[in-house]
From TrEMBL:
It comes from the Eukaryota. Gene3D superfamilies: YVTN repeat-like/Quinoprotein amine dehydrogenase (2.130.10.10). This is Uncharacterized protein. Keywords: Repeat, WD repeat. InterPro entries: Quinoprotein_ADH-like_sf, WD40/YVTN_repeat-like_dom_sf, WD40_rpt, WDR55/POC1. WD repeats lie at residues 292-334. It comes from Bugula neritina.
Amino acid sequence: MYSSLFIITQVSSPLVRTDYGNGTVILTSRSLLLLKTGCQVESVVEIARLSSISKLVVENVTIVLKPVQCLRVYAGSSVKPINIFLEAESRTWDILLRELIGGKIISTNMRDLFLMEQASQNVLLLDALVQSSKSVDSVCFHSKDVSMAVDLLSHYAKEETKQKLLIACKTLLYRLNPNADELDTVTVECIIYVPGVSSTSSRTSTLSPRMSLTSSRFEAGVNVPPTVWCGMGNGKIRIFDASSWRLYPRYVQAVDRVVSLSYTCKRIWAGSFDNLIYVIENNPLALEFQTLDQHTDYVVDIQNDPSSSEHVFSGAINGSIIQWDANQLEVLREFHCTNSILTSFRVISHKEIWCCCKDSLVKIDINGTRHSLLYYVDERDSRRYIDTFCIVDDYIWAGCSDIGRVVVWSKTDEVRKAILPLDTRGVSQMVSIGSSLYLGCKSAYTKRRSITNAIINSPDTSSKSRLYVVDAKNFAVTEELSAHNDTIRCMFAVKDQYLLTGSSGTEGKIAIWKHHQNSEKVNE
């Protein structure tokens, strides 16, 4: 049962005696309530908030020479407990309360509100287990000792679960779930932050008159709020309101997965594996868009032109790169990186465009002429695949796809300067913020047998993927963070202050981090 404020997870039998009077005890996702017998709803009394409960004890109390089970709740700093005489239900209520309190603690520490919803759902499922055991003709194995069954199936109430999930990470601000209303969890392929736009600007004033009534506030002079856009593995482009972290119900649906996002000229450009580019107006309530079909293969990356805010580049996996007029949506130029499979690229200038081509980094110009080729050969004389790269000042950083190594070259003389060994299966993403470089890594694999008895690798959800923080000036790892249960698939830096990371399909969540070296001046 849901309300706008909380979830009601458990209701006791009527005429329960408490220190606050007699009535029905109600357990919600926020607090423990008492609905007094014979009173109206307005007379509901709050026994204790979940966040204030410090201890729970089930004891036998003698009342009129009769032993009665009592649940004693210690709240806040009070030494005196609150007595709730639930009798035979006391043990079950104790476990259900511990499950919710454990979920509350873990949800707060992991900055993930979805975990509190999961804990509430767990309580509802455990209550269904209790109710099924009360049937007269029940033959369920748990009907003999329902308290033990509930205790075994509880998750957040267990101390080992709390120790495993709690991470005291001051830099982690929020965790978002773009898969909250999906049946299957899918990968967050790409992510971007879009600043708010004034509705009095020329772009916003051209909104379609077919907008719904709920969007009338945008036409009344109210600003469009800042948003976070996510390209998903199922082809959806989901949007969060960055001022409230509310997930908008509307979305753009591509035919195949969306793997790149860019923002220019007050429009969002999205590249998809359906060979199309979706150009979307920055209005989450209207979501008007056009498609560009000049590419003949997967669109793998979209980059803004540093020399002009009105131009944008898009690249396809076959090496085709197109320069666009971002306002007129017209092709200005097309050239090719013919070295290998194109996975991403960075535009430094029209004379310097670096392309990541599976096992090498290639420097070309705007005419497609190749000027440089960089690759990494390990001690076994094997050429390693490169999943991601980043250019920081005069250095090029490349992350190996299938080994925990980061290779650094000088951009001026193209000489290898350093190799950073990392305890990970591979490096999947890189983003620089100030003098720091964030390295998103792949999750560990565990071997299991398939239906055909073949041994295959699958993500190990018991181990978290790592996020390394590197001092780009000294080529040294300064910190190791963790928040995702799967490979970090995408990253985005916001105003040199925050970092957004998105994970693969086993988890499919977004983490928002505070750039922990904003105190770089102090460190210096």
